[in-house]
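User: Show me a protein chain along with its predicted structure.
Assistant: Here is one chain, sequence first, then structure tokens.
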Amino acid sequence: MILALMLADTTNPYATWGLIAATVAAMFWAVSVVLYRRVGRVMPPVMLNMTKGLIAVVLLSGVLLVDWLAFGNEPWSMSLGKLGLMALSGVIGIGLGDTLFFAGLNRMGSRRMLLLFTINPVITVLIAWALMDESLSGLQLIGIALAVGGVAWVIAERNTAKSDGHVDLLGVVYGIGAASCQATGYLLSRHILLPGGMTPAASAWLRLLAGSLILVAFLPLDRFLKNAGGQSHHHPANPSKQQTRVMFFVALLLGTVMGIWLMQISAKHADKAGIAATLLSTSPLFVLPIVALLGEHVSKRAVFGAMLTITGVAMLFVFSA
């Protein structure tokens, strides 16, 4: 992360702010993921995702109105086709991606889910290579191996809270699916943002609106996503209604409103999408001390796996072809 910031173009303050936005977004996501896991004990994944998205849309509507009336920044001025693609990025990245993320969070816990999610930049590179004909250098392939190896090292760690110690394969499927959807959504939104015509706040608003509305059709899946195959055996007692409301609001404000807004700022202003994606993937480095403070055991293996993964992800983009 420090190396990525050192490599930033200091002659372009907007690029530097884009990288700072990505780093702060990762920190906010770490806090919100820990809180959303607690909320997820009493609220199913689809309902949780839809509710937080629609409330965030209302809050961002106020931001857009103030920005438009006070500063003259028109939220968007682009073709219906581009608006539709931005909405599609929200359906894929937020509607489907976040729902799979919450489902995996219920099963695997915040630490393992975030560590698994650090393959998001790897998937971003692979999608860009497959669909945009971007070649991969030898050092990038080494980075992929390190990143995936670090994740595998962590998720294969024996969970002492389970008698059999088996890896939760369905949780891993949820995690990989979430990472793939969010990587696709990020690439698509960046493609629309770069030419201009839409502010980061407006793109966050549109992505959240589209991603939340599509979830109405998936509400019947809630029981399956919440209960299929069981949930993590190691989790705190269900929070009270008052605790749930407080945790939900804090997670909503930090992770959904500010986190997605900052992610869109990084997508628009960062010179190198890869370095921004690397910084966005550093949430595990922030979540480890958080869960440790909450009393969850963090092994040396988890710390080593996180560092190995982040090293691999950083190599992907620092040593670009």
